[in-house]
Design brief:
alpha/beta; eight-stranded mixed beta sheet; four-stranded antiparallel beta sheet; 12 strands; 32% helix; binds adenosine-5'-triphosphate; binds magnesium ion
């Protein structure tokens, strides 16, 4: 059970402005508000809540990762953001409008590449580009596709069909296709999980540099803590299902401009990593105790900033996660 809402804001109302100590003025591109998804039990006689009372937001240009154990509802949540599934309660607002289905302003990179096997790499991308800009000439479409083929380092493999591409190359076509329609939001469901460590590492770095270049807003599901620390500005921690909740939002305390090497050697890297690991190993399972303590408000999941040392002298012990910059233990869910 979660604490009852003290005040129920209307859909789209800037609840952070009502409740948080310091209103955040940055543009919010996604607002997830009170989301719940239930599925019928196999006998059809009742239903199970996969997750409920999920509140968080994503700002324009922000990279947000979602971490949680298998079965807690991550893919279900992403499908709802994509408009491929509908919530049982609550809603998702994109750029000020509640979504009601899929749209070209949100593109998805699935766990498996989901390419059309009968089309070449460039034609797989062109299919999406033609849907986005049906008025474009063939040359415009092909030039645009080539730009994204080059961006993911697939130059020379344009005419290969998926069967002729390696797993990493197929994932790159999927990423190029998702980027090529210049969506407001890129949604990714464990896009690199099926790849070997070397390929995964190079694709993560490509994604990092593409995002730095394009300022793409991204929401990505991952099981990989290092991937989240490398890529994300903010990491949403989801507790175990059923009845999963957003336990906490972790702000990445590593500098925004980072490479893998910088990340590993930064003093905040291990505090970040240890905090996330501790969540996955133990807190994700015993979160119900935190819920029953009564201080948890699902609209304002705690926002923490794990760092190697105190921000202000005497503020906290080294390695201890610190509350968000505004000093609020319970932060604005629309941060
Ligand atoms: N269409 C459906 N009908 C019934 N139950 C479903 C349906 N889709 C998902 N579920 C259930 O919802 C829960 C969450 O599934 P989901 O695929 O979202 O988990 P996940 O967090 O993405 O897991 P993983 O990390 O293994 O990919 C699971 O218990 C799953 O069985
Ligand atoms: Mg999943």
């Amino acid at each position: 059970m979660t604490a009852p809402l003290a005040k129920t804001p209307k859909r789209g109302e800037p609840i952070g402005d009502l409740m948080s100590p310091a209103p955040d003025t940055r543009k919010k591109i996604i607002q997830v508000e009170g989301l719940e998804r239930r599925f019928a039990t196999p006998d059809g006689k009742s239903n199970t809540q996969v997750f409920g009372d999920v509140w968080f937001s994503i700002h324009e240009g922000e990279f947000v990762c979602l971490i949680g154990h298998s079965g807690c509802g991550k893919t279900t949540l992403l499908n709802i953001l994509a408009g491929l599934d509908a919530p049982t309660a609550g809603g998702v607002i994109v750029d000020g409008k509640e979504i009601s289905g899929p749209s070209l302003d949100r593109s998805v990179v699935f766990q498996s590449h989901a390419l059309m096997p009968w089309l070449s790499a460039i034609k797989n991308i062109a299919f999406a580009v033609e849907s986005r800009w049906p008025q474009w000439s063939r040359k415009q479409v092909l030039d645009h596709c080539q730009k994204y083929i080059d961006l993911v380092h697939l130059t020379g493999s344009e005419s290969k069909k998926p069967v002729q591409l390696s797993g990493g190359m197929k994932q790159r076509v999927g990423i190029a296709r998702a980027f090529s329609i210049e969506p407001k939001i890129l949604l990714m469901d464990e896009p690199f999980s099926a790849l070997d460590a070397l390929t995964r590492g190079s694709l993560q770095e490509e994604l990092l540099s593409i995002c730095a270049e394009t300022h793409q807003t991204c929401f990505m599901i991952t099981h990989d803590i290092d991937e989240a620390i490398l890529l994300a500005d903010k990491i949403v921690l989801m507790t175990n299902g059923p009845e999963a909740r957003v336990c906490e939002i972790v702000e990445n305390t590593l500098p925004r401009e980072r490479t893998r090497q910088d990340a590993y050697t930064h003093p905040n890297y291990y505090p970040m990593r240890n905090h996330l690991m501790e969540f996955l190993v133990s807190r994700s399972k015993r979160f119900s105790q935190e819920l029953s303590s009564g201080s948890y408000d699902p609209r304002y999941p705690p926002v923490v900033r794990p760092t190697a040392g105190p921000r202000d002298a005497g503020a906290s012990k080294a390695g201890e996660p610190q509350p968000a910059q505004d000093g609020a233990k319970y932060g604005d869910p629309l941060r």
